[in-house]
Amino acid sequence: MSLTRDPRQAASPPPAGAREPRRTPRRRERQGPAYVFLSPWILGVVLLTLAPMAVSLYLSFTDYNLFDAPKWVGLRNYTDMFFEDPRYWRSVGTTLIFVVVAVPLKLALALGVAMLLKNMRSGKGFYRSAFYAPSLLGASMSIALVWRALYNDGGTVDDLLSRIGIHTGGWVADPDLSVFVVALLAVWQFGAPMVIFLAGLQQIPGDLYEAAALDGAGRWRQFVSVTLPMLSPVLFFNLVLETIQSFQVFTPAFAISGGKGGPADSTMFYTLYLYERGFSASHMGYASAMAWALLLGIGAVTVVLFRTSRSWVFYANEGA
After folding, report:
1. Cut 0.90: pTM above it
2. Does 51 reside within a domain?
């Protein structure tokens, strides 16, 4: 009888319920360099994100004017904001209109251009870069000012519409149209979701389209029955990102309205009103309360999107 142990027995897993061996000092030493390399990120999160958030949460319960020491007022900022400030709710409504208009148009345009680029045989790289460029430039103050000049009274758009008999007097000066100027600027920056859609379209197997064509499905039917279901995870990803970004729009609204939210508060977006209360009126406590209300609102909308996604987002490994 041999006394030599089978090496497979030495490597066998411990029995159920047995405690895992404690980490040896050598193993902890190997983890040390990982924390060293992670330390810049950890310090950045603590000092630049968590600490400012904690200070902002504290200031939201105070009366703070940027010059004197904060005075604790409890929930007064929140009660004033929700029940005694009509401009606050006007800014909420304006922002919701912008989100409802800009996000679907932006995603539809991005998907349409991505499908055109997918079928191109030559020049795809050039056009992809050209369509992506507005996403890099559109957030700048200079582009927003140019956009304001285009849609102002006597601007290029007003002049072109006047030649065909449509006299608007400039979209920027019209309370009913000014918010759509900002929305069109956001839609023009469709490059980022377009690139993501293009990557998703290239992952759809061509066999699915061939099978649908054999069954007599036309292009529209293939789009509805093949493209959209297979692309739904990418569509959901873009929808969440664009919705979150749209709630935080600031630079275009500031530039197009001259920082005043006019005319008649028609471009007084949430973040612009937050800026006005915090820095123009020196009510930083009130502005901090608005910031936390915005954070909770975006969180609630994101939760709703995730809950509703269960009925229309399909993944390839579902049911496997």
Report:
1. no
2. no
Confidence of residue 92 (pLDDT cuts 50, 70, 90): very high
Q: Do the domain assignments include residue 240?
A: yes
Please give the Cα distance from 55 to 102 (Å, whole number).
33
CATH number at residue 166: 1.10.3720.10
Which of 247, 141, 242 has its CA nearest to residue 189? 242
Q: Which of 117, 200, 106, 184 is nearest to 151 (CA)?
A: 184
pLDDT of residue 3: 47
Range of the domain at 94: 88-311
- What is the CB neighbour count within 10 angstroms for residue 210? 11
Residue 49: C-alpha distances to residues 13, 52, 141, 302 (Å): 43, 6, 25, 20
Residue 265 within a domain: yes
Among positive and negative, which fits the CA dihedral 177, 180, 185, 188? negative
Number of structural domains the chain divides into: 1
b/e burial code for range 46-84 (CB count within 10 A of at least 16 → b): eeeeeeeeeebeebbbbbbeeeeebeebeebbbeebeee
